[in-house]
Amino acid sequence: MPKVTIDRERCKGCELCVAACPKQVLAMSTKINSKGYFYAEVAHIENCIACALCAKSCPDAAIEVER
């Protein structure tokens, strides 16, 4: 199963990764990070196909995908 790691402190909540994911694996958290942003989190890892579109779309390089 793929592994998606999101550095919540680097995430600024732009939601580009959520929009880029074809399988709706990611969602925005209801919690905020230390900078005051709602951050992306893994909501449905079971749907992940390890395409890494989320990581490629992240302007802050806050996402890592392992196959």
Distance between the termini: 7 Å
Output the number of helix runs: 2
Strand content: 25-35%
- What would you say the CATH architecture is? 2-Layer Sandwich
Report the CATH topology name.
Alpha-Beta Plaits
- Strand runs, count: 4
Strand neighbour order, sheet with most strands: 1-4
Regions with little confidence, pLDDT below 50 for 5+ residues: none
| Sequence of secondary-structure elements | EHEEHE
Number of domains: 1
- Main pleated-sheet profile: 2 strands, antiparallel
CATH class wording: Alpha Beta
Helical fraction:
10-25%
Q: Mean of residue pLDDT? A: 98
How many whole angstroms does the radius of gyration measure?
11 Å
* Overall 3D form: globular
- Structural class based on helices, strands and sheet pairing: alpha+beta
Outline of the structure:
Helices cover 15% and strands 30% of the residues. It is of the alpha+beta class.
